[in-house]
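for the writeup, i need someone to sanity check this before i put it in the appendix. the sequnce is what the collaborator sent (i think, or maybe the updated version? ugh). structure was predicted straight from it, no edits. if anything looks off just tell me and ill rerun, i have time this weekend
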Amino acid sequence: MSSNNNTSAPGELSKISGAYHSVKGTVVEAVGDLTGAQSWKQSGRDEHAAGEAEKTAAEAKAYAQATGDRLDAKVNNVVGALTGDKDKQTTANLKDDLASAKQSANKPI
């Protein structure tokens, strides 16, 4: 089963990192607006856009992983039903529920 946290290695997509950079970019842009510093305004806009893009990409990746987890759960549920393995079915149903919740949390808008 895939991990459901937002900790990531350097260079990996992260919803938390994306949100941080989005907010930081907005603040930097506001400072540029207040001081009239064009470089700060542009830097802030760029960082905000990059943060939003990272957050969106991380959500898409998590959604796709959850979709794979749900497919795996469905296959295991069918195998459990065919073989009479109730434990396998129960585990598959739990995995499907968790993956469904992960999909909901990362559903594209």
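The first helix runs from residue 15 to 35. Residues 1-6 have pLDDT under 50 and may be disordered.
thx in advance!!
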